[in-house]
Automatic annotation (TrEMBL):
<dbReference type="GO" id="GO:0008137">
    <property type="term" value="F:NADH dehydrogenase (ubiquinone) activity"/>
</dbReference>
<keyword id="KW-1133">Transmembrane helix</keyword>
<dbReference type="InterPro" id="IPR001750">
    <property type="entry name" value="ND/Mrp_TM"/>
</dbReference>
<keyword id="KW-0732">Signal</keyword>
<comment type="subunit">
    <text>Forms a complex with DabA.</text>
</comment>
<keyword id="KW-0813">Transport</keyword>
<feature type="signal peptide">
    <location>
        <begin position="1"/>
        <end position="25"/>
    </location>
</feature>
<dbReference type="GO" id="GO:0015990">
    <property type="term" value="P:electron transport coupled proton transport"/>
</dbReference>
<dbReference type="GO" id="GO:0003954">
    <property type="term" value="F:NADH dehydrogenase activity"/>
</dbReference>
<keyword id="KW-0472">Membrane</keyword>
<feature type="transmembrane region" description="Helical">
    <location>
        <begin position="232"/>
        <end position="255"/>
    </location>
</feature>
<keyword id="KW-1003">Cell membrane</keyword>
<feature type="transmembrane region" description="Helical">
    <location>
        <begin position="267"/>
        <end position="288"/>
    </location>
</feature>
<feature type="transmembrane region" description="Helical">
    <location>
        <begin position="203"/>
        <end position="220"/>
    </location>
</feature>
<protein>
    <recommendedName>
        <fullName>Probable inorganic carbon transporter subunit DabB</fullName>
    </recommendedName>
</protein>
<feature type="transmembrane region" description="Helical">
    <location>
        <begin position="78"/>
        <end position="109"/>
    </location>
</feature>
<feature type="transmembrane region" description="Helical">
    <location>
        <begin position="169"/>
        <end position="191"/>
    </location>
</feature>
Amino acid sequence: MPWRGTQLVLLAFLLALLAACVAVASGLSAPIQFFGFALTPLSSGFAAMICFIAWVVTRYAATQFRDEQDAGSFKRRLIATIAAILVTSLADHFVLFWLGWVAVSLTLHRLLVFYPERPRAMLAAHKKFIFARIAETLLAAALLTLYFTYDITRISELSFIADHSVSNWVAILLVTVAAMKCAQLPVHGWLLQVVEAPTPVSALLHAGIINLGGYLLLQFSEVLTPAEGARWLLAVIAGLSMLVAASVTMTRISVKVRLAWSTVAQMALMLVEISLGFYALAALHLLAHSCYKAYAFLSAGSAVEQHERQVFAQLELPSFRALLGGAVIATVLVVAAAYLLTTQLYIAPWLAVGMALALWLASEVDYFGRRHLIRTLAISAFWLGLYLIGALLLKALLTTPVAEVYLLGIDIWVCFVLLGIASVYLWLLYRPRRALGHRLFIALNAGLYLDEWATRLSLRIWPLRLPKGEQS
C-alpha cells in the first residue's frame, strides 16, 4: 500500500473513532464491544489521537524516505507499530491487551535498530528491550492476579470489583509497568539515546507510544483509586523523575536530547496527576503533550531559525520585579478560578498552573511594558479558561472514577517537587556564575550519572555484542 493509501486509511479510522467517542460519551450509544475490543470514550479517543499522530508522521516519512532504497522496509515496520498501538488502545480482553502491549514493544524495537551501524542506537534499543521484557512480565502477573482473584477477563469488568484486598498489590505492579513504559528514572536512559533513530520514529515514540504508561493507569483506574500505597509509590517515582528531568532539560543544548528529557518530565507530571486522582486532567495533558511533541520533533530542524528570531527580538530574562508582579497576578487568577470552578482540595495542580502563568506574565510585562498589562491579563485569563474548559469536558467524557480520598501527604510532596523545580530554574538562570550554580549545572548536564548505572546493570544482565566494525 502506498503512503497515500495508508494516510487515507488512518483518516477513515480517525473519523470513525471520533464519531464513536462522541456517540458513547453523549449517551447516544452504549460502549461498543466486539471480539475482545471495546469502544469507550477513553479508548476510542486515545485511538483517534494515535491515528492523527500516525497520519502526521506518515506524511513526514513519505517525504523523508522518498529516495531511500530501504523505504519499503521502513514503511512496513512503521505500519506494524501503528497497528500494534491501535490494538492495545482498543483492546478490552486481558489477553488481547497484553498481546498488543508486547507487539508494540517488538515492532518498535525493529524501528529503533533500523540503522544497525549506529552503536548508540543499538545500545538504546538493547536497554529498551530488557526493560520492556521486565515490564511485560509484571503486566502479565497483574492481569493473571486479577483473573484468579476476581474471575474477570476484561477491562470493562473492573468496576464490578467489590473487595479490594488484593488490588493494592496489583496496582503496585501496574504502577511499576507504567513508570517503565514512561521512561521514568532510573530506566530513562534509552529514551535519550534513541534520538539517533529516524525522525518519524522519534515523533511516534514521544507523541504516542510513551503515553501508553499513562493510558494503562487510566484504563485500570478502578484498581488504582483505592490503592493508597500504589498512589504513593507513583507520586514518589514520578515526582523525583519530574524534578531531575525538568532540571536537566535546562542544561541541554542538543535539540532532540532536550526534547527527550522534556518527555521524561512531562510523562512524570502526567503520572503525578494520576497519583492525585486527576484523571481528566491527566487525559488532557496526554492529548496536549502528544500533539506538541509530534510537532516539536518534526520541526526540530528549524530550531536554529527559531533561536535566531529570539535573538533578533532581543528577548531577555524577566527582571525579579517582573517575576514578583507576575506571581501576584497569577496567584489572584488561579485562586479565583479554583474557587469558582472546582471543589477539589488539592493545591499542587493549581500551584503548577500558577507558576507557569507567573513566568509567562513576567516575560510579557517585562518585554511589552505596563501599557500592555490589560492585554496580557486578558490573554492569560483566556488561556486559563480554555484549560479549565478542556479539563471539564474531558471529565464529562471519561468514565474513570474520581479519587475521593484526599491524600495530604502526596499533595505536600508534589508541592515541594514543584517548588524545587522552580528553585533550580531560577538559580540556573539568575545565578549561573556562582560556584553552586556551576557545580549544579555540571551535575545536571551529566544527568546526575543515573543512566550510567542503569547501562552497566543492563549490560551485566544481558551483554550486547555490536557488529565487528562498530565496536570501540
